[in-house]
Amino acid sequence: MTLDTVSLGRTGTKVSEVAFGTWRFGREDDTGAVEVGPERAHRLLDAYADAGGTFIDTADMYGGGRAEEYVGDWLADRDREEFVVASKIYWPTREDPNGSGLNRKHLRRSIDEMLDRLGTDYVDVLYTHRWDDDTPVREFMRTLDEFVRDGRVNYLGTSTFEPNAWKVVKANEIADRRGYEPFTLAQPRYNVVNREIEGNYLEMCADYDIGVVPWSPLAGGFLTGKYSRGEEPPADSRAASDQQFVDSYLTAENFDALEAVESVAADVDASPGQVALAWLLHHDQVTAPIVGARTVSQLREDLAAAEVSLTADQFERLLEAKAE
């Protein structure tokens, strides 16, 4: 299969319809073992590129910087211009009072360190990984604008866990008044069961023509169908050791939504996870969902969602399965 190409939000840049997320790269588990090391990371990136994937998502804090290093080492053997690389900035990268956040000192130091790890002189998209209420918006928007003007960044985006539409509006209004580069992309959590952005946030994105690049499209694995109502979670699953995940996802309301996904999956002869991804791919406001995988086989199964066709009725069934 070959992934289709879509516009990166309102920009003129084109990307593959599914982005590949690298948050597992270099990440250590409770035993200190690395979940996805460099060799496996490169096999995953190879498989993604072989499927026509061009949109790679990472962050300066993934694996303590190792994720960016893995991506950079892989890109060294590829044509950099064939790929759209997005990274994120905010979290601590050093232990000092200015070692995190969106203050100018941290941003200026971190962008250079990021580019060094990636082995490139620019990133296509730079996201603010979280919001910084301690730094004036005009300060970080001006600093981010400098990165665009000097060629180290092409586009700006904002990634968030708590979708506060008014904060993005404030930032873009300040950017408009002062002639700064605005946020043209947003990276919120969005999937069939996590619907917090519906309403004000999605309406804001539509009104300001901001592309939506959702993370956690499979709700941390809940939408893959590995969990069943009233049954103990599999021993090797996240729910077996993460009570917060259990409390957040293994609820009666979410199982109702999962059963709707499984029903559509049976209709179209696909896996529940593929249908959950296909729902986002059919969503008018979604630019490209971000998938992550531990193995090449998992990645290929996820990417096959691009071949799943949903009718308007099936899309609406999932839309109505859990509406905020």
Descriptive report:
The protein is of the alpha/beta class. The chain has a domain at 5-187: NADP-dependent oxidoreductase domain (TIM Barrel, Alpha-Beta Barrel). The chain has helices at residues 38-50, 66-75, 104-118, 137-149, 165-178, 200-207, 243-249, 252-268, 272-281, 296-303, 312-321; strands at residues 5-7, 14-16, 19-21, 55-57, 84-89, 123-128, 153-159, 183-187, 211-212, 290-291. The strands form two sheets. The chain has an eight-stranded parallel β-sheet with strand order 9-8-7-6-5-4-3-10, with helices on one face. The protein has a two-stranded antiparallel ribbon with strand order 1-2. Helix 2 links the parallel strand 4 (55-57) and strand 5. Helix 1 packs parallel to helix 10 (296-303) and helix 8 crosses helix 9.
Q: Could you name the CATH class of the domain at 5-187?
A: Alpha Beta
Give, in order, the helices and strands: EEEHEHEHEHEHEHEHHHEHH
Strand order in space, largest sheet: 9-8-7-6-5-4-3-10
Question: What count of helical segments does DSSP give?
Answer: 11
Structure summary:
The protein is an alpha/beta fold and about 325 residues long. The protein has 11 helices and 10 strands.
Please tag this protein with its features.
324 residues; alpha/beta; TIM Barrel; 8-stranded parallel β-sheet; two-stranded antiparallel sheet; 11 helices; 10 strands; globular
